[in-house]
TrEMBL record:
Residues 24-91, 92-172, 175-263, 266-344, 347-421 form the POTRA domain. HAMAP family: OM_assembly_BamA. It comes from Nitrosospira multiformis (strain ATCC 25196 / NCIMB 11849 / C 71). One of its GO terms (biological process) is protein insertion into membrane. Part of the Bam complex. Its main location: membrane. The keyword Signal applies. Residues 1-20 form the signal peptide. GO terms for cellular component: cell outer membrane. Pfam families: Omp85, POTRA. This is Outer membrane protein assembly factor BamA. Keywords: Cell outer membrane, Membrane, Repeat, Signal, Transmembrane, Transmembrane beta strand.
Amino acid sequence: MKVRYLVALVSALCASASWAREPFEVKDIRVEGIQRTEAGTVFSYLPVKVGDVLDDEKAAAAIKALYATGFFKDVRLESENGVLIVVIEERPAIAQITIVGAKEFEKDKLKEGLKQAGLAESRIFDRSTLEKAEQELKQQYMARGKYAVKITTTTTPLERNRVGITFHVDEGRTAKIRKINIVGNKAFKEKDLLSAFSLRTPGLLTWLTKEDQYSKQKLGGDLESLRSYYLNRGYLEFSIESTQVSITPDMQDIYITVNIVEGPKYDVSEIKLAGELLVPEEELRKLIQLSPGDTFSREKLTESIKLITDRLGDDGYAFANVNASPQLDKEKQQVAFTFFIDPGRRVYVRRINITGNSRTRDEVIRREMRQFEGGWYSTSKINRSKTRVDRLNYFTAVNVETPAVPGTTDQIDVNVEVKEKPTGAVMFGAGYSNMEGLILSGSVAQDNIFGTGKFVNLMVNTGSVNKTYSLSYTDPYFTKDGVTAGLDLYKRVLNTRTLSSVMNFNTDTLGAGLRFGIPINENDSIMGGLGAEQTTIDLGPDSPQRNIDFVNKFGRTTINIPATLSWRRDGRDSAIWTTSGTTQRVFAEVGLPGGDLTYYKLSYDLRWYFPITEIFTLMLNGELGYGDGYSGKELPFFKNFFAGGNTSVRGYNISSLGPRDATNRTLGGNKRAVGNIEVLFPMPGMRNDRTVRLSAFLDGGTVWGPGGVRPDQEGLRYSAGIAVTWISPMGPLKISVAQPLNSQPGDNIQRFQFQFGQQF
């Protein structure tokens, strides 16, 4: 740009020198040489108007102004009988940009980058801008490890003073990290230190994760991870002296060397508290994770500061400041800390602002808030509010910020930003078995109808085994206190004749029921229900004798009055991306006297999440079930427990485990036990993407009962495998591949299963 102004100035001076004419009054102005530019555009930039007296100074100013637009390559002023003639030569315009040879990036994204560098179609062509854009293109490739990239550009003149620009890209091979050296380490092995790095040398999955490609940003993060590794193990004076990154002349191999100084290892000698202690000192000391005699850990120190700050925040001190000042004794290699506490002013919440909920009503979110407007600020209440909004499962993300109110010292706002996800779904399920082939099912649901937070579920399951037609309605806030009310209407048809692994019978059940739920506290709730159902039984010619005896005793059609009671506790940190916490559920179903069936079924489910590392989460799941009859009656065979399939023991066909009859058909049982061990982790290379999660699992379980096998004999079955869950733009997709570990002759194996949902 400076060069352009210099050329304009020189041209203006030359024009001034050549304009050796007497000043004259401009009677008219004519523009010559334009092809694309409108004459009006030239007039708008020209500082000379009709009626002005043009002299050398104004002529120079006019030429300089027109050059400054960047539209013109040459400008001359001429006069003829009082007419000012502006003769210009336009710069060419860019007609098209073509990129040839690009594979690493999408061409549209490359063009967007060129546009940000100032080069785009329809813009004025400028050689310096082209060079800048070329360098920007190279930088994008080098950021992907393409250090050997070569980019050549050609410009082709076109009609009407336009040019076409072609970028010829030779990407070359991607440079790989061949070696990472750490120099100066004595306390720890190099391989242990490198385990904290995200950058690494080529391995089995690095073609996918790109972790073997150098990035300055990633190296900076790895160096901070290395620093944390030492500081969390007592090396308070650890430092990184230098870092060298070198690349071979062929631009293919990268070598990284990190020089460190470990320093001595420090233990904690004393912990003191100072400042304004509004909370009893004894209570604050319980929040400090470090104790005298412990090895120093920056992680524990940071956590201690956070806990103290949050505790003060619970009393309304949102801007509390806690600093830990170290006092080093280098001779004894000990460090003492004094926690200086400045609570600041107590603040209250002025307003709660909710954004991002284009479909969900404000009241649905506000009723989950435990922090109230006009109340004193509370860290725990705000965190609890965020968790409750998250558990609604209407949003893919929930973010809460607490900015100070401008112009005040004792007020804050709570800004809740949500990102809605589709809550209506048309679900399609499928599985493949070597015995049955493809199995299909489906349902329609809306968990947040009209944004009110109410649930409506219309299930139409047309599987070959289970056919279900049901309508469920739930109001989670039937009362303002959070009492839940629901209604269920259903028709269930079970046809086991197409299942070679299950005993031969059909049932057709028509029923209705009412449900009510009462919240006990933030995590616990109790749900009760009462219903009525009619079941018609159709036995096949090879049905087991106990099924025949049941029909002879109770008839083909039975009336049942089921009552249900359940208790649920949800202590998960998130329903979107669970990393810690537990869920528990106790469920009881009883067939009440007055109906043909008197029985009871009890079940208990426990799911526990434990964070192993920042990215790995351990999930343990256990399920127990027991049922029987009372008043001299047995548990109806169609109320039996079953196991096997993608919701219990993967690797075995649905409902195929447990007691069997003489024809090897599954009978089900009155006892059920299932356990799952699963390690959850992000997709490699997609650590921050909460839509995809992988897992490795170990499943085990069975059912048993009268006349069936016991788990201490041969009933328990185990499997292991991998699974992926993806919340895709088309809906949730779950895929699992399992290998049975102790299958027996006659077992019905189903290694591959998937479930897909179309959301709207």
